[in-house]
Amino acid sequence: MTQLAVDRYVVETLMRDMVGHDRNPSGYLVFLWLWAKTDGGRRRHAASLQTIARETGLSKSAVQNAVRYLRDRRRLIAAERDGPTSPPVYEVFAPWRR
Question: How far, rounded to the nearest angstrom, does the alpha carbon of residue 42 sit from its chain's CA centroid?
Answer without folding.
Answer: 13
